Amino acid sequence: MSEEVVHMTSQDGLRLMVTCDLDFERAERVAGALTRYGEGPIILDLTRCQFIDSTGLGVLVHTLRHYQDQGIEIRAVHVLPQVFEVLEIVGVVDVFGRDLFVIIEEPSDMP
């Protein structure tokens, strides 16, 4: 498993915590680590992802589609406002729906 993604089992499902920014440098390792699971629900925790570039967007979209195509429920939680803004600008939120993303509104919302 990639050190960029930590997996934990919780009562809500499998939590995959991305521990880095989603960028060109890490995209291939993160993509492989995110799409290796066959059961859900999947909680994609983006607490530590402060930046996402176009390659990272591709990884995120691929991951969301991968699980949705398999009928596995997936949600992205603890999305920082600056990352969510990028997702909105490029239309990812429109494609997958606002309910799929849980945004951190205040710093106190972070675990």
From TrEMBL:
PROSITE patterns: STAS
Segments forming domain STAS: 16-111
Matching CDD domains: STAS_anti-anti-sigma_factors
Pfam families: STAS
Protein name in the entry: STAS domain-containing protein
PANTHER family assigned: ANTI-SIGMA FACTOR ANTAGONIST TM_1081-RELATED-RELATED (PTHR33495)
